[in-house]
Each structure stands twice: as structure tokens, then as C-alpha cells.
Amino acid sequence: MVRRVRQLVPRPNEVRDLLRLAVPVIVVQIGMMAMGVADTVMVGHVSADALAAVALGNLYFFAAAVFGMGVLMALDPLVAQAVGAGDREAVARGVQRGLLLALALCLPGALLLLPAEAVLGLLHQPAEIVPTAGAFARISTPGLPGFLLFVVLRQSLQALNRMRPIVVTIVVANLANIGLNWALIYGHLGFPAMGAIGSAWATVFSRTLMALLLMALGWRDLRPLIRPLRPAVFALAPLGRMLRLGAPIGIQYQLEYGVFGVVGLLMGVVGPTAMAAHQVALNIASFTFMVPLGLSAAAAVLVGQAVGRDDPTSARRAARAAIVCGMGFMSCTAVALVTLPRFFAGLYTSADDVIAIAAVLLPLAGVFQVFDGLQVVSIGILRGVGDTRTPMIVNVLGFWLLGLPVSYYLGIHAGWGPAGLWWGLVLGLIAVGIFLLVRVRARLTGTLVRIMIDDRHAIPQ
């Protein structure tokens, strides 16, 4: 028994190797989240309706953009495994195809964003916030290219273990976003006070800045990968294989985000106060989630590089370290959310009715923290080995066939309100986390094969 426990505990050097990459990734993830937190906090001091409108507008934007972001995550196994194999040309082709796909994915995203107000109205969202929320989503459209191009550049540099340009970019973008919010939301420096709409414009400028600045700061590493243009980049068969690899990630992201989005819409049916409280609680839970999300990204890179080197032992060790670190951190945050819910809710808003509901939801977030960390780290490990379909399938089973029906029944039918809606999320995350851990164990004990999309026999699942 003691020997088995020792095998589960990662060695110090395994944790060190993981954290060397994961800590900068976590800083980046927290920085990405901090932009949304700044928007929420600064708009939250305008009014509860403004906070709810930004919550709904942001929800709609990511519902339109998250599939494209997920598709581009195919760069994790492609680039990381090519780096591990020392195949520089495959790295360059992967980066260039990622940029091409990012530009192509802007069109469907924009077509979904433009009719936001009409769609939200059809979904029976509160009439008092729909016009502002729809305008927020529509104004966000010009920021979509910057958002998706940043994803490509970030994933590529992460796979190359070049984190400094990404960290600097995130810090600068956050400072710019706060300054623009201050000017545009409240009306400083000669700008009119635009409230929630000002926050939307600040976000557009900040996302565009992120892509341009990261390209500039990372140009030394990116230049040989972007120039010259490889003719094979436009070959339809490899592009199709890359899309085939990334589409399940995009669908998984869409489904997972969709569950939280549907719950958010149901909160809107309950009322604007419930929607605002849901946004506050979800924002806090999402902030702590950035740490295991960063560990997941690091695990995808380290496992992918090990697969490229044909080193399954290193892949297993990196996976073990990521799971233990992710679950350990989320256990600590669970204690904080369960014991101090009103304190954390009060950081976001001074509205007593919003704080009261958020303080009920945050302990529930504490319940699912550990399993949320487990599922996202497991997804990163599976992405590193090239298994992108399993998380999609497990997502459907755990969230949509189990969690969401429970949410609707308890929250709407049984009359439990916001707490009932969140209990379904808790149940779904527990199921997804356990299923994915079983899949990780099965994949890492099997044969690990590098993915090569220029080979017609590519993408074993």
C-alpha cells in the first residue's frame, strides 16, 4: 500500500519540470481572466443592470468564439510533438496553418455576433438588459481577429517553451484594458461615460493590442516559422486533418461553455439579480480555475514533447505531476470559497441582493473545484497525446445528459432557484472528472504515436 502511494506522488524533479513551464502559463491564464474581472468589477460599480448586461454580452461573445478557439488548440499536440521530434519544418507548417485557420474562423464568428440582440430577445432574456448586452456582443466583433490570432501565437510559443513574450503581452494588455475601461466606462480624458458599451470598446482595443504586441515581442522565434510561406500550408488534405483534430476540441469547448451558458440564460429567466450574482460567482470560480487550466496547457506541451521524443515514461511522469498539482491547488481554493463566500462576493459588487445570492453559489463552486481541476488537467494530457475526441464524448454524457437536466429540474421545476441550477453543474463536473481520469490512465498505459497531419495515415485516436 505504501509503495502504491509513493508511486502516485510525483518526484520533486517532475514537479519542477512541470512548474517551470506551468507558472508562466498560469500567469498568462490569470492575466487573461483578469481582463474579464476588471470589466466585471468596473462595470459592477455602475449598476446591477450594467453588470448583468456585460455578463450576458460576454457570454454571447464567447459562445460565438469558443469553437474557433478550440479548433486552434490542435496546435498543442501538432507543434509540441514536432518540437519533441526536432522537426522544425512541421512546426512551421503547423503555425502557418494555424494562422490561416484563425482568419478563416473569423467569418462564422462574426456572422454569429452581429444578430446578438435579436437572438437574446428570442431566448427570453430580461428586456431591460437585452439592448445593452446585444450591443456589447456586436461591438466585440472587430476584436475577434485579434482574439483568435493571439490564440495561435500563444499556443505556438508555449509549445516552444517561449513564455516571456506572452507574459509581457498579458501584463501590458491588462494595464491598457484597465486604463481604457476607466476612460470609457466612467467618462474620463474627454470621453463620454459609456458604461457597459465603453467596456466593450475597451475589450476590442485590448484584444487587438494583444495579437499585435505578441507578434512583435515573439518575432525572433516566430519569424522563421512564419517566413517564408510554405507552399504545403495551402494543401487541403492536411488542413482538413488539422481541422479534424481540432474540431472535437472546439465542439468540446462549445458544449462545456454551452452548459454554463444555458445555466446563465436560465439565471436570466429567474431575473437580472440572479444573472448578476451568477456572473460574480462564476467569475470568482473561473479565476481560481486559471491555475489548473495553466497546468493543463503545460501538461499538453510536456506530454506532447515526450510523445515526439518517443519517451512514454516522461509523458506519464508529466501527467502524474500535473494531476496532483491541479487537484492539490483546487482543494485549497475549495476551502476558501466554502468558508468566505460573502467576502469574495463583496469584492465585486456592493449590491446586497447580488451578494446574498452569490454567497449561496460560491460554496457550491467550492464543491466542484477539485473535480473541475481534475477534468481540465486530464483534457490537457489527452490533448498532448492527440486524443481530442474522448473529452468531447465525455462532455456530452456528463454535462448535457446528466448535469443540465438536473440543473433545469432543481432550479426551475423544483423551485430551488440559482442554487438548484448550480447543483447540476456540480454533478456534471464530478462525472466528467472521473471519466476523464480513467481515460488518461488507459491512454498512457498504451502505445503513444506522434501525429503527423501531412501523412495520410495521421491522427490515430
Describe the structure.
The structure is a single chain. By secondary structure, this protein is an all-alpha fold. It has one domain. The chain contains 18 helices and no strands. α13 packs parallel to α16 and α17 packs antiparallel against α18.
Descriptive labels:
461 residues; single chain; globular; 18 helices; mainly alpha
The fraction of residues assigned to DSSP E strands is: under 5%
Work out the helix count.
18
Task: Kindly provide the radius of gyration, computed on alpha-carbon positions and rounded to a whole number of angstroms.
Answer: 21 Å
Low-confidence stretches: 1-6
Q: Helix- and strand-based class?
A: mainly alpha
SSE order: HHHHHHHHHHHHHHHHHH
Mean pLDDT over all positions: 88
Categorize the overall geometry: globular
* Helix percentage: over 70%
Number of domains: 1
* Sheet having the most strands: none
State the distance separating the first and last CA atoms: 34 Å
Please report the total strand number as a whole number: 0
Write the layout of secondary structure elements.
Blueprint: H1 2-8, H2 12-44, H3 48-72, H4 75-85, H5 88-113, H6 116-122, H7 130-139, H8 144-159, H9 164-186, H10 196-217, H11 219-226, H12 236-270, H13 272-308, H14 312-339, H15 341-346, H16 352-385, H17 389-413, H18 418-444
Helix pairs in contact: 2-3, 2-9, 2-13, 2-14, 3-5, 3-7, 3-8, 3-10, 3-12, 3-13, 4-5, 4-8, 4-13, 5-8, 6-7, 7-10, 8-10, 9-10, 12-13, 12-17, 12-18, 13-14, 13-16, 14-16, 16-18, 17-18
